[in-house]
Amino acid sequence: MSPRKSVERIPGGVDSQTESIEKILRYVDSESPLVKELADWIEDEFSLEGDTRADRVIRFLVGINMLAKTGERLSPGLEGGKWLAEGADAETHFGTFDSEIVGFREILEELFRHEANAKELNEHLSESIGVGWETSEQVTRRLNYLRSIGYVELEEGTYSLSEDGRDFIEGRSERAQFQAPPDQTDIVDVFDQDNPPEVYLVAQDIGNFHESHILIPEDNRHDISLRKLSSNALFIHLVDDEFRGYSRQSEAATETTQNGTRYRRVPVNVVRFDDPVGIQGVIGELLRSDSITRPDSYPFSATGLTEVTIGELGGDAAQTILSSVDADYTYAEAVPEYEFENPPTPDEIEDLYYPGGVLTEIIGQMVQALTGGQHIVLVGPPGTGKSELAKQVAAKLTDSSVTMVTATADWSSFDTIGGYQPEGQSGLNFSPGVFLDRFQDDNGNPTNEWLIVDELNRANVDKAFGSLFSALADDSVTTSFKDDDGNEIELVTKADVSGESVAAHRYCVPDTWRLIATMNTHDKMSLFDLSYAFIRRFAFIHVGAPSETDITTDAIEEYLTRWKIAIDADTDGEDTGAEDTAGETSPDSTESETEPASHHDISSDDLAGTLSDEGVEQLKQYWSQLQPHRALGPAVIEKVARTFCGEGVDLTRPTKMYVIPQLEDLPRQTQENAIDALLDPEADLQLKDEEIITFSEDYLGINRGDLHNTQA
Questions:
Q1: What's 683's DSSP letter?
Q2: Which of 169, 199, 225 is the last residue of a domain?
Q3: Quick one: pLDDT band at residue 370, thresholds 50, 70, 90?
Q4: Which residues constitute the domain of residue 696?
Q5: Same domain for 154 and 264?
Q6: Which CATH number characterizes residue 358's domain?
Q7: Which among 321, 248, 315, 313 has a CA at the least distance from the CA of 279?
Q8: Do residue 534 and residue 501 come from a single domain?
Q9: How far is CA 210 from CA 244, 426, 533, in A?
């Protein structure tokens, strides 16, 4: 998640910002309140001034991970837990602000250089990180937080660093801001982090390299300002046409003048390569426009290295250089694997709700299969949350992002394995498909990125998977393709190549890599069947729609809460401004499988619509009438409910828009039974019968004379 740009004012005064947050945290930790309960407590406990509002304060604290929100229940978040821990101090507080909100470190670094007022600092942030604030209000709020933790002082409208703030920024505090450079064995992995470092090439005399500082002229070819570089930046050192090592800033930079030239002197901690890498071995890759993303200050041109002291490499070029240092890196060392130490629990699954104990069973089956070495297929009707469930469980087990693709009838091994594609003037080059792409990054480094294939049975699996069947069965495969150097493209298991050096033409399947697929059972008869060769390699897990007995008033209220639809006993279908604006989404989140969420605490900003108690009962009866004939997942009913909230709208409109099309593949008798169920007078759904019958005749080809609940 990207850091926030917007900061809210915390009640309690400028000097008490952090104290107020800690007070809120202690209350939440002891009481585990609902959002509304905390809002009421804040309004009672503090004197709210100006535009400070309790609900905005809560959203802000949730947004920076001080508080965690499960349904409407609050608890201390990841960052909040750090504040509550014994020994939390100003650096703990600053660490939260710096990691969760943009601008805090940049303000400290600018004040380290000179005193400034809020307007000047706002202009600096606009230039350095592009915030684009029209006023200085957001800067002032950040300064108030920094004053509250004791790092910044204010005198007559001018801000400066306090002694503690200067100690921190200069690295003299107990936990300095400057980090040691990563070990050589871990250096390539830093580019997989959420915020990978900036990387610069420094071409400088070896003497300065050994003296552990670099001198960068203020006036350099690319106008790179060392004042604006992050303390996390890495420098790769090129000396005498050899990459000798890399470094990271170790102390605050200072200014110096030598022979009339003004420099920034940057102390660094250096990691030297045991075997330097000659530039000739990688220059070809560094100059290839199709494989390297080039920053504006890229230090290489078509003719080689430009005349620069410093230039920005970017992550692609840096990994190319650093990977060449590890040319003998084996697959046993290089292939990332997952430990599955923290499997997800039902309470950790967001934006999904299932009545009863269904979710616990589904999660249990998924975790057991995936951690036990199985690939899985989630099967069930449309709208039951299969895709969302697959994404969340995969992300929890791997603690990383996963890729989702949707299968099509046109899929072939070209889409999954890969094939030759035109590439510039170099002719045809091999390009990996969606499966092979999960096992290797653009620089040839092994990766372990799980894949989710949505709507699996839309593809001809035997045609599309081909040699993947062998890989899924832990067998290595040599394809018919070759890379630019004539090496055959191989799909290999880790066991077969464990002790061998990493090579770009080999795509290694990690031991803990998994494929998760989803399949709509409504489509099963009309699309491709799955072969036995495929089926025996997967565990199939059912994600069903609620049964007729599951569709109770309490369940409907649970769903409405998660769809942001309020229930108002005084409302009888009035306009809420919420016409059907949502596409198909998954069923929504739950605090737990037994504790219902409140439907009274939906903020006005989130509100999608309002239904009366009568509307709730109609929706329950409507879903119950349909379910025996066509099992519909909550995502379909969500569309119905959102449309039902519109002014003067009954259930006729959403029935034609979303429900009758779902009956298309059913046998004629079942279609007629479903329409009859909707038109049943005892159900009292208040539908416009003639519209439903006419649309069913046109869309499904039903003969009205075959329906029981209408006159021929």
A1: G
A2: 169
A3: very high
A4: 548-706
A5: no
A6: 3.40.50.300
A7: 321
A8: yes
A9: 11, 42, 61
* In contact, 676 and 647? CB cutoff 8 Å: no
The CATH code of the domain that includes 195 is: 3.10.590.10
DSSP string, 453-465: EETGGGS-HHHHH
Measured CA distances, 595 to 71, 353, 357, 555 (Å): 10, 11, 12, 11
**CA 163 from chain center: how many Å?**
39
Helix (H, G, I), strand (E, B) or coil at 330: strand
Residue that is written with structure tokens 């200085």 in the block: 136
Instruction: For residue 120, give both structure tokens.
Output: 């000047």
Give the C-alpha separation, 507 to 445, whole Å: 9
3-state secondary structure 344-411: CCHHHCCCCCCCCCHHHHHHHHHHHHHHCCCEEEEEECCCCCHHHHHHHHHHHHHCCCCEEEECCCCC
Helix (H, G, I), strand (E, B) or coil at 130: coil
396 & 408 share domain? yes
* Residue 157 falls in which region: left (phi positive, over 0), alpha (psi -120 to 50) or beta: left
**Domain assignment of residue 175, yes or no:** no
Indicate the burial class of 701 (C-beta count within 10 angstroms; 0-12, 13-18, 19 or more).
exposed
What end-to-end distance do the CA atoms of the chain give, in Å? 59
Q: Indicate whether 538 and 584 sit together in one domain.
A: no
Task: Report the Cα 223 to chain-centroid distance in Å.
Answer: 34
How many helices (H) and strands (E) the chain has is answered by 26, 25
701: alpha, beta or left? (left if phi > 0; alpha if psi -120 to 50): left
Measured CA to CA, the distance from residue 71 to residue 178 in angstroms comes to 39
Task: Give pLDDT tens digits for 149-177.
Answer: 999 999 999 999 998 888 887 664 433 45
CB of 93 closer than 8 Å to CB of 17: no
Give the SS3 label for residue 527: coil
* Integer Cα distance of 196 and 190 in angstroms: 6
List of residues 6+ apart from 678 with CB closer than 8 A: 622, 625, 626, 655, 685, 687, 692
Q: Which residue, of 521, 544, 567, is where some domain finishes? A: 544
pLDDT tier at 590, thresholds 50, 70, 90: very low
User: How many degrees, rounded to 5, is the angle at CA 97 between CA 91 and CA 100?
Assistant: 130
Q: How far apart are CA 255 and CA 14, in angstroms?
A: 34
Task: Give the domain CATH number at 96.
Answer: 1.10.10.10
Q: Mark whether 377 and 308 lie in a shared domain.
A: no
SS3 at position 257: strand
Residue 651, burial from CB neighbour count under 10 angstroms (0-12, 13-18, 19+): buried
222 and 296 both lie in a single domain: yes
pLDDT in tens, 29-85: 999 999 999 999 998 888 777 667 889 899 999 999 899 999 899 999 988 888 988
Q: Are 393 and 367 in contact (CB under 8 A)?
A: yes
pLDDT of residue 176: 45
Q: Count structural domains, the chain.
A: 4
Which residue in the block uniquely carries the two structure tokens 């997952």?
Answer: 338
Rounded alpha-carbon distances, angstroms, from residue 556 to 403, 621, 638, 649, 694: 32, 10, 10, 19, 29
Q: How many CA atoms lie within 13 A of 628 on its CB side?
A: 11
Q: What is the DSSP letter of 337?
A: -
